[in-house]
Amino acid sequence: MALAVAPGEAKAGVRRRATVLADAIEAALGALYLDGGIERARAFVRRAWDDVMNRLEKPPRDAKTMLQEWVQARGLGLPHYTVTSRVGPPHAPEFVVSVSADGLTASGAAGSKRAAEQAAAKDLLRLLNP
User: Fold this and answer.
1) What is the model's pTM?
2) Same domain, residue pair 122 and 77
3) 2 is a domain residue
């Protein structure tokens, strides 16, 4: 089943954006909770994701968290993120973000500031941990 979006949004690729998909799942789970209560919502979540959640030994960590933990473990200052550019129309922006830590700088690009920050952090982690 596909996520129903306006034709212009479909052309912009919003169906593939993690934040849009997460918002849609959150809305569906909220509707299930409001309509059927916590036990029905809990049962659905367990049926849908229990196997995946139980296979994880540790919760997944994102690149920004890993970078912050890396610098803090070494007594360094926190990473500094800067939006270096934003291009494109409002419905499909492209952000470029740079991040600096331990005297090194890296950058990342994506359709949201948050995703661009993640990409930049991932790039910097590659430099710090060759």
Assistant:
1) 0.59
2) yes
3) no
**Are 115 and 107 spatial neighbours (Cβ–Cβ below 8 Å)?**
no
Same domain? 98 vs 51: no
**Tell me, what's the pLDDT at 53?**
81
The closest alpha carbon to 122, from 59, 85, 56, 68, belongs to 68
Domain annotation covers residue 112: yes
Structural domain for 33, as ranges: 7-55
> What tens digit of pLDDT does each residue of 12-32 get?
777 777 788 888 889 999 999
Instruction: Name the strands in the sheet holding 80-87, side by side, starting at the edge strand that comes first in the sequence.
Output: 80-87, 94-101, 104-110
Which CA distances in Å does 7 have to 3, 13, 94? 12, 10, 20
Q: Does one domain contain both 15 and 39?
A: yes
Range 88-92 contact pairs with CB under 8 angstroms and sequence separation of 24 or more: 91/8, 91/9, 91/12, 92/12, 92/13
